[in-house]
Design brief:
Strand content: under 5%
Radius of gyration: 20 Å
Order of helices and strands: HHHH
Largest sheet: none
Number of strands: 0
């Protein structure tokens, strides 16, 4: 019996821990990483945001995928229908990461990458001109929007964590 439970316990540990890590990682980027970036002039902030993004994209998606795969396995092997539904819900939350990103965050990412590209073309001593930009299009406004959307995305991982814990306790 213990041999049969080991893969389940391992998947529970991986699923819950990696979902919690994903939530904390996502929230930390927005809560700790973004505010200092907003202190910089636009041309520097655009570059700093892009650097933060490039580091985060290497870590966040693989962790969410590990967690989602664990929850799919647990949903498939769950002996109780309630637990199976909860694990499936946890997996759905994590599979919602790329859907949410594509639907809501990618347009903001693209605008920020364009700001970064413009900043990279500046000569030494020049700054991005943001005077007269439409409301919501300045670098700081775009970074603030990204921060809010990233917080919302973190809620998906938090939801997955809570569903995974609840399923495990069922």
């Amino acid at each position: 019996m213990a041999d049969q439970e080991a893969p389940i316990r391992l998947a529970q540990a991986f699923g819950i821990t990696s979902a919690a890590f994903s939530a904390g990682f996502t929230f930390s980027i927005s809560h700790l990483g973004v505010p200092p970036i907003l202190l910089a002039p636009a041309h520097i902030a655009a570059r700093q945001w892009a650097a933060l993004y490039s580091r985060g994209v290497l870590t966040g998606p693989p962790i969410a995928l590990i967690s989602a795969a664990s929850f799919v396995y647990l949903a498939y092997t769950a002996p109780v229908a309630t637990a199976a539904r909860l694990y499936a819900g946890a997996a759905a939350c994590l599979f919602g990461f790329p859907v949410f990103t594509m639907a809501f965050i990618v347009p903001t990412n693209n605008a920020l990458f364009a700001r970064r590209d413009a900043a990279n073309k500046l000569s030494k001593g020049e700054e991005l001109t943001e005077v007269g930009m439409p409301k919501g299009e300045s670098t700081a406004e775009l970074i603030n929007k990204w921060q809010t959307l990233n917080h919302l995305r973190g809620c998906l991982a938090l939801g997955a964590t809570l569903l995974g814990v609840r399923a495990t306790l069922t």
